Each structure stands twice: as structure tokens, then as C-alpha cells.
Amino acid sequence: MNTPERWTHHRDIRAEVTEWICFSMDEPGELDAVRPYFRNVDKIAGMPKGQFIAYNRDSGEELAGKLF
Fold first, then answer.
1. Number of domains in the chain
2. What residues make up the domain containing 49?
3. Phi and psi at residue 25, in whole multiples of 5°?
4. Can you tell me whether residue 2 is helix, strand or coil?
5. Within-domain flag for 1
6. Among residues 66, 17, 65, 22, which one has the least CA distance to residue 42?
7. Radius of gyration over alpha carbons of the chain, in Å?
8. Quick check: is 15 in a domain?
């Protein structure tokens, strides 16, 4: 989902997503929208720009990475 307001997508659509790739998020609305689907979403808050955490909902696995 790559829109200015990602959390505005209907929850039924968000529930079908099996993998989340989250970059730096600080807005409470963004974090709260992802929280039901990514149990450790609080790790994202304040992450440096360019870093990300990928989360697989089916396996529970996380992968951290850095683009720049």
C-alpha cells in the first residue's frame, strides 16, 4: 500500500495482507492501523530513514534491512 494515508484502506483489505514491510513510522494513526496485523509494530517508531522491518503474518518471521 503506497498511499499518503495507508491506514484509510478498509480493514478487510488490510486483513488479507500476509506480509507487511514497514519503514519509519511515527504517526500514531499509522502505527495503530498496522498494530492488529504486526505484533511488534512499535519497533518501527523512530527507526532511522531507509531502514525497514518486513513481517510475515503466516510464519511470524521478521526481517530487518536497510536500503541506504
1. 1
2. 6-66
3. -135, 135
4. coil
5. no
6. 22
7. 11
8. yes
Residue 37 lies in a domain: yes
In this structure, the number of other CB atoms found within 10 A of the CB of residue 37 comes to 17
Q: Angle 17-33-25 (CA atoms, 0-180°, nearest 5)?
A: 100
**If pLDDT is split at 50, 70 and 90, which confidence band does 1 have?**
very low
> Which strands form 19-23's sheet, in the order they lie side by side?
19-23, 51-56, 62-66
CA–CA distance, 68 with 47 (Å, rounded to integer): 13
The pTM (predicted TM-score) of the whole model is 0.68
Closest C-alpha to 40, from 17, 29, 56? 56
Average confidence score pLDDT of the chain: 81
Cell reading at 27: 504517526
CB distance 33 to 50 below 8 Å: no
Is 39 inside a domain boundary?
A: yes
Q: Which residue has the cell 536497510?
A: 66
Residue 52 has pLDDT above 50, yes or no: yes
